[in-house]
Amino acid sequence: MKKTLAILLSTMLILPSTSFAGTAVKENAALKQDTKQNKSEWSLVWSDEFSGPEIDRSKWTYDIGNWIVDEDGNGITNGWGNNEKEYYTDSSENAFIDDGKLVIKAKKEQVTDQFGTYDYTSAKLKTKGLFSKKYGRYEIKAKLPTGKGLWPAIWMLPEEDKYGTWAASGEIDIVEAWGSRPHTVAGTIHYGEGWPNNKYTGKEYELPKSRGIDKWHTYALEWEPGELRWYVDGELYQTQNKWYSKGTDNAANFSYPAPFDQEFYLVMNLAVGGWFDGEVDETTKFPSQMEVDYVRVYDLKKRDYREPVEPVSGPVVLPENAKQPVDGNLIYDQNYEEQITVVDEPGEALNSTYWNFVKLPEFGGAGSLEVEEVEGKNFARTDISNPGTQLYSLQMIQNISLGNGGKYKVSFDAKSTADRSMMVKVGAGSDRGWVKYSNEESFKLTSDVQRYEFTFDMLNETDIESRLEFNLGGNGTNPVWIGNVRVEDITGAPVDEDGPKQPLPDGNHVYNGTFDQGGMDRLMFWNFSVGDAAAAASVSENTRELHVAIEDGGSHPEAVQLEQKGINLLKGNDYRLSFKARADEARTIQTVLLGKDGTVDYSGIKTIELTSNMEEKTFEFTMPEDVSDPEAQLVFNFGGGDGDVYFDDVVLLKTSNIPDYENIDLYPLKNGDFTDGLSSWGNYVHFDANAEITSANGEAKVAIANEGNETWSVQFMQGELSLSKDVVYELSFEARSTVERYIEATVENAQYTRFLSETLQLTDQMQQYTYEFEMSADEIVSFKMLLGKNASSPVGVHDVFIDNVVLKVKDAPSEEEPVSTPGIDNGTFSDGTTDWTAWWGDQWSGYAGGEMTAVNEELKVAISQVGGASYSPQVFQKGLLFENGASYTVTFEARADVPRKMNVNIGKELSFDPWFIYYMPTKIVDLTSEMKTYSYTFVMNEATYADGKIVFELGNILDGNAATNVYLDNVRITKN
Contact, 666 vs 723, CB < 8 A? Predict the structure, then answer.
């Protein structure tokens, strides 16, 4: 049974249907003897034979309702995260004892609670808080119901989420069945990271045609350290021994066999509807019930549990019919020389060998893909006319072959015309339930070509039709270029444990400070060395703390040393180091932060007194004002004394916040006072809502006739905001509503990860709201106001007004007052293309092709194709001040490899017709192959404006539109 928040196709939880593990139980003597011998190894430790008159409440408790809720009872998601339709009760009508058997009955009847109304009732029993166990044999004799949309399950969850939220702490499905597939059951494990980066592996088992799931069968799981085995009626049908667990704030996986090395409790339930078997239909009979004859749990009695054996990565051998790597690359047609298949209708098959461009009309995605040369190499350029509602509304996909047990690296070059993000993943197709093989990786693209990469482990069964997906939808209309794509088998490649380390998401600069990650020695990222001493370092599975056993401490503290390299320290910042430690007898140890080569002391050597009690020790230091070191060393000295040392929970935090503001946009949100209408702003109105967004009187107005059924049904937003890690931001805005209501204000990335989430109440009086938040990562985000369904709904017809939206770095200096010069930045192009932007057209102006670069401190616009209008393509700079009544002179140098024309415009950009207000009449320049200087003077007759724009148009200009290289230099605008 799954408890994920899966709501998208790419995260649907349908088990793979390509592996069948068995047929009918073999009725031969050898198998019977094997089964008998197998069971004779086990001794019963807990059971329920259901022989009493009612359910034993000392063994079983219940889940109630249809919603997953938080600690305060607030709803998180309905349908138990699986779109289930039943309401679970503890009524004796839904769960009871009958003739020595437990019956869980699903009934068609309506129930209402504070969250809604449900058409079915059922029951979910569990032993949480009453019985849990690590390892053993779990045996259940049960009879399961048939019928479309019925989902019976007997499964296990961790008593404590020791390794993180589902599924980082694991889930074990002993048996679950599809009501619509009466001869198939499955066993599955869930593991990996917290949703949505969870993974699962499992197999199906085919029952005899004469004895389906509605007949009595014995389902068993044998769980030992590092191995799980599933049985049906004594027949072993699958063994699993490859999995992993990774915490949100960890640099590496928890040490194997996590997460299946902790106590789990039992769950039994009968769900109705949901992702697993879909919805019920007219053939589904109610009431329906599952019956359980007994539940028995055993421990080994004749031998010890096996020692876990960490999976070893070996060479991956793909089947003969797989796509074999070419020059080490599993991607074919890396240079886009073959025809790219366009898939734009549901059910259309992908080209199984080469690239595919997928447009899903049901999700609103629209665009085109062309091959274009960038820096001498072919790139796939995707132009997006409608990004659709999902990240996968537009995709570039190639099937690749992946082998079980392999480790793979995906790498590619990419860019856009401006900052935007893109999600990339590797996973299965529909025949394997869209299971993810990699995480959903989000990459921040810029206007420059950059190299991106990620790695993943293929723990599922070999899949020769895996999918590498570049998900280009749901995230704005900026085009994307992708090239030089490689997928390589790097199985067995070593990890540079001493390399530079960026701080972890929780801010800790120390990797594996809890000594529970990496290999089974749990010492990943740490180096232990001994000089003239005798000592050893180890970590036990039970304590998960470092034990430094010292036989002879040597002559000096450095004789026994523990260090971690690659610590990233920033100039001028304060740091706090903390750790827990004790010793067999009172003694001292030392700690120090040193430079990369060990010769520079940043912190000073600190002497720490230890006792026999585990105590937290701390000290603080400040980095020099002029020195940053991305590869410093954290060193602990245990030598020069006797007494074993025990060590845990090492944390190094930066306690001040002095980022490099030179590279940070202090005011990333634009046009927050709506003086330029709705420029820079966007909106979304779902089909279940009715709203119109306009600007009037310097405010944004959202006229809502129907707020819809979801909080996100009506959205007002500004996207493509580039925020920086560890920076504290301040968000403020003013808002009111003609009818009192609630709204949500969020700052979130393309994967809907929220860095700020606030619910606020609006009244008919304009109020200011101010919030602070700290970014945990460098991200491209959106500021959103969610104006759909809320706690006051239905609200009825009403208007919401928004004004003075400011998103800034906290304590940033005030936005600079306009100065008496337009302020061209980087007009000499000595800083590359910084402050300049190229635009390559759209479906209305016609798409142009080419690239903007800086060569020899000149701007080079390499035009391979002009669009249909004079302004496609163009290069421009904004943010220029022009004062009413002032006279200005613009000068620049320009040439072209082939003579052609260029238009020069200066004015104000608009987001509505007529789109541009001209401050200077358009100047038409006849470019030659000789660099010449051009100069024009004009008087500013419009109102003073501080976001003016200079545009060099290089598109389809009558009698002069050659596709060639154009060069610009020394662009200046001066006030006369």
Answer: no
Q: Does the active-site annotation cover 176? A: yes
Report angle CA 362, 363, 367 to the nearest 5 degrees: 105
Distances (CA, A) of 383 to 387, 478, 840, 876: 10, 7, 10, 20
Taking the C-alpha atoms of residue 415 and residue 838, their distance in angstroms, rounded to an integer, is 13
Q: What is the pTM of this model?
A: 0.63
CA distances from 779 to 466, 482, 642, 808 (A): 28, 20, 49, 15
Q: Is 291 designated active site?
A: no
pLDDT, averaged across the chain: 90
Which pLDDT score, from 0 to 100, does residue 82 have?
A: 92
- Pairing label, strands 754-762, 714-723: unpaired
Query: How far apart (Å, rounded) are the C-alpha atoms in residues 892 and 870?
Result: 20
- Contact status, residue 678 vs residue 699, Cβ threshold 8 Å: no
- Catalytic-role residue among 84, 86, 159, 171: 171
Q: What is the pLDDT of residue 35?
A: 41
Q: How many CB atoms lie within 10 A of CB 813?
A: 9
Residues 6+ apart with CB under 8 A from 390: 8, 9, 360, 363, 365, 473, 474
pLDDT higher than 60, residue 662: no
CB 970 within 8 A of CB 828: yes
Predicted confidence (pLDDT) per residue in 761-796, tens digit: 999 999 999 999 999 888 889 999 999 999 889 999
What are 518's two structure tokens? 């990496």
Examine the pLDDT at 312 and tell me if it is beyond 90. Answer: no
CB 62 within 8 A of CB 90: yes
Active-site entry in 86, 176, 545, 953:
176
User: 792-843, pLDDT tens digit by residue?
Assistant: 899 999 999 999 999 998 877 665 433 334 678 888 898 899 889 999 988 7
Beta strands 560-569 and 527-530: pairing type? antiparallel
Please, what's the b/e burial string for 634-666 (b: 16 or more CB within 10 A of its CB; e: otherwise)?
bbbbbbbbebbbbbbbbbbbbeeeebeeeeebb
